[in-house]
């Protein structure tokens, strides 16, 4: 239906470009209301802009909150997976098996899917080419035998022929596009410009296929294409040929729908995907079951080992069967039984030795007291003896004193071994304890020609400690430093932080080698066994000092260098029950620093003197140190 339209003449002159007046169009009554509406527009724009900013801020805040919660969750999951990967052999094995299975099935599935798709397409293509040759031959024969005289007859003949090729029925078997070859030189009196199946145009034919068909003679070409069918696009194959009718050359393309082949391929891929997923799950379950049977005995052995290490020597593995795992369990149980027997024997032997030392020490106290009283009588009357007897009385007195000191140390060691040593901690000023120790060591320092220098804060340092045991520790350290300091100064450094107080005793003497340092806190050990017994004590001083430090939950550490002296550091918590995170004094003495002590003073307590008296000193010394948590050896490189 064609509708007639009438052209409206446009105005000319100056009025042609004049804009219409809205106020005039609305009438005189709107001329006053319009300026008021325009005046409220900026206010409304500001309100909407502010609302937009508020909404944007709220959305941004929600997004930021979600990101801040999502990222930690992802990090936590990643850390959990990494920890699980490192600590679980079963998890690592099952996950690796699953990854390898997925990769293998993916590769095999991709190969099978590609092969099936190629075979289906090739089969459909062969069928399409064969059918196209047959129907193109029929079309050409029909065109050659046609007797038509007018254009309407030509159109009817072409339409009927192409409909027969299309094979209409319940399902369209093939579609066509019939197009005249462009730029033909021969005159065309009776011709059909173009014809195509429903919803198709020549645009569905790939340009490369059209070019190949136009430039060749009777050859046949094909190409993949997309054809619209209803509301969806389907894959298809376009096969092109040339036909002639009444001297005009036409391009005839038969288009075959391969959607059924695509659906078949999708179903096959779905089956492959579902089957692969089921197989992967089955492989994962099998891998979990197999690795569980292998890893469970190993995990059980690790658990039993931990219990044995904790002292539960009666623990054993459960042995089932006669395979390799069962033999491993039997061997493990045999080893555990042997270890239990040996440890029990050693424990009994240790108890017997401790009891022997304790009993002998107690039994020796009475005769030793009698011998000491007799030695004191002889020592006091030595001026009336001849020189030989006088010297014998002096030696007897000194050795009895040494014997009594050794006996006291043995009794103290026996208390530690029996576990009856108790800590009597009270708040005390550690500077007063140090001053008392230095006063007691003054005669020994004067005898060796050393001076003791105290570096400490001006105010006192109160700590919860057993003053008697701290006094004994510091006396051992200071007398040990004086004895091995070779007449050089001995520096005592004191400092405290928020959790601990530290005391470092530094000498400039002979120092220690690494081999000597490894055994510095061993019982009855001396750095040089060939040295005269007039120098050094029994070898129990530093061992007792270490035990006293453990009672305080503190650290006793040492640093040394051969020829450059040694430095012993004692660190105890300010309040009992608290942990020590770091020591407030340096372990390496090259650059001694007092951290967080604004007012420090250097006090010269004692200079060299002419006389002195002997005192109980620590035995060995060296580069050993105490591990901070347990009071055993620490590394010489540690600093505060």
From TrEMBL:
Residues 292-344 form the HAMP domain. Gene3D superfamilies: 1.10.287.130, 6.10.340.10, Histidine kinase-like ATPase, C-terminal domain. SUPFAM superfamilies: ATPase domain of HSP90 chaperone/DNA topoisomerase II/histidine kinase, HAMP domain-like, Homodimeric domain of signal transducing histidine kinase. Residues 609-625 have a biased composition (Gly residues). The keyword Mitochondrion does not apply. It catalyses: ATP + protein L-histidine = ADP + protein N-phospho-L-histidine. It is found in: Cell membrane. Its main location: membrane. One of its GO terms (cellular component) is plasma membrane. It holds the Pfam family HATPase_c. Its EC number is 2.7.13.3. It is an enzyme of class 2 (transferase). PROSITE patterns: HAMP, HIS_KIN. GO terms for molecular function: ATP binding; phosphorelay sensor kinase activity. Residues 359-576 form the Histidine kinase domain. Residues 626-640 have a biased composition (Low complexity). It is a multi-pass membrane protein. It comes from the Bacteria. Residues 1-30, 604-640 are annotated as: Disordered. NCBIfam families: MtrAB_MtrB (NF040691). PANTHER family: HISTIDINE KINASE 1 (PTHR43711:SF1), TWO-COMPONENT HISTIDINE KINASE (PTHR43711). This is Sensor histidine kinase MtrB. It comes from Pseudarthrobacter psychrotolerans.
């Amino acid at each position: 239906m064609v509708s007639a339209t009438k052209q409206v003449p446009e105005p000319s002159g100056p009025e042609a470009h004049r804009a219409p007046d809205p106020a005039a169009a609305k009438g005189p009554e709107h001329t006053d209301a319009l300026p008021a509406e325009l005046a409220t527009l900026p206010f409304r724009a500001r309100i909407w802009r502010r609302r937009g900013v508020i909404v944007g801020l709220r959305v941004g805040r929600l997004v930021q909150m979600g990101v801040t919660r999502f990222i930690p969750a992802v990090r936590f999951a990643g850390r959990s997976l990494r920890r699980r990967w490192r600590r679980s052999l079963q998890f690592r094995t099952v996950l690796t098996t699953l990854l390898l299975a997925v990769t293998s099935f993916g590769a095999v599935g991709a190969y099978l899917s590609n092969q099936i798709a190629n075979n289906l397409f090739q089969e459909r293509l062969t069928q399409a080419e064969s059918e196209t040759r047959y129907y193109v031959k029929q079309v050409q024969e029909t065109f050659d035998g046609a007797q038509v005289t007018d254009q309407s007859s030509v159109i009817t003949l072409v339409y009927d022929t192409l409909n027969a090729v299309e094979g209409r029925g319940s399902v369209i078997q093939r579609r066509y596009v019939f197009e005249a070859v462009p730029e033909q030189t021969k005159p065309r009196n009776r011709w059909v410009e173009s014809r195509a199946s429903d919803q198709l145009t020549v645009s569905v034919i790939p340009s490369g296929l059209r070019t190949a068909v136009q430039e060749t003679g009777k050859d046949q070409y094909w190409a993949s294409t997309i054809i619209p069918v209803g509301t969806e696009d389907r894959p298809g194959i376009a096969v092109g040929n040339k036909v002639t009718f009444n001297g005009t050359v036409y391009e005839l393309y038969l288009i075959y729908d391969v959607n059924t082949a695509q659906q078949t391929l999708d179903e096959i891929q779905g089956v492959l995907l579902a089957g692969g997923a089921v197989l992967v799950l089955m492989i994962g379950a099998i891998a979990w079951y197999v690795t569980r049977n292998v890893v469970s005995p190993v995990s059980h052995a690790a658990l039993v080992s931990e219990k044995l290490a904790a002292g539960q020597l009666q623990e054993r593995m459960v042995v089932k069967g006669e395979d390799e795992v069962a033999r491993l369990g039997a061997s493990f149980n045999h080893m555990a039984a042997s270890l239990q027997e040996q440890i029990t024997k050693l424990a009994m032997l240790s108890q017997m030795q401790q009891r022997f030392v304790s009993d002998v020490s107690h039994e020796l106290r009475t005769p030793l007291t009698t011998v000491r009283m007799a030695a004191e009588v002889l020592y006091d009357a030595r001026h009336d003896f001849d020189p030989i007897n006088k010297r014998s009385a002096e030696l007897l007195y000194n050795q009895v004193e040494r014997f009594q000191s050794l006996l006291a140390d043995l009794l103290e060691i026996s208390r530690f071994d029996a576990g009856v040593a108790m800590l009597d901690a009270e708040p005390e000023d550690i500077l007063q304890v140090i001053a008392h120790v230095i006063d007691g060591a003054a005669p020994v320092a004067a005898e060796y020609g050393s001076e003791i220098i105290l570096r400490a804060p001006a105010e006192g340092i109160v700590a919860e400690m057993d003053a008697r045991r701290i006094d004994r520790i510091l006396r051992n350290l200071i007398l040990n430093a004086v004895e091995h300091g070779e007449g050089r100064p001995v520096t005592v450094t004191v400092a405290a932080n928020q959790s601990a107080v530290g005391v470092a005793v530094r000498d400039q003497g002979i120092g220690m080698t690494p081999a000597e340092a490894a055994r510095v806190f061993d019982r009855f050990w001396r750095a040089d066994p060939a040295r005269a017994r007039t120098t050094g004590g029994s070898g129990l001083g530093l061992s007792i000092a270490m035990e006293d430090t453990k009672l305080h939950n503190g650290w006793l550490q040492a640093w040394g260098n051969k020829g450059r002296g040694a430095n012993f550091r004692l660190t105890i918590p300010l309040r009992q029950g608290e942990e020590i995170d770091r020591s407030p004094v340096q372990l390496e003495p090259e650059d001694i620093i007092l951290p967080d002590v604004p007012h420090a003073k250097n006090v010269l307590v004692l200079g060299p003197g002419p006389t002195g008296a002997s005192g109980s000193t620590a035995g060995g010394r060296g580069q050993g140190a105490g591990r901070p948590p347990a009071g055993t050896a620490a590394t010489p490189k540690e600093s505060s």
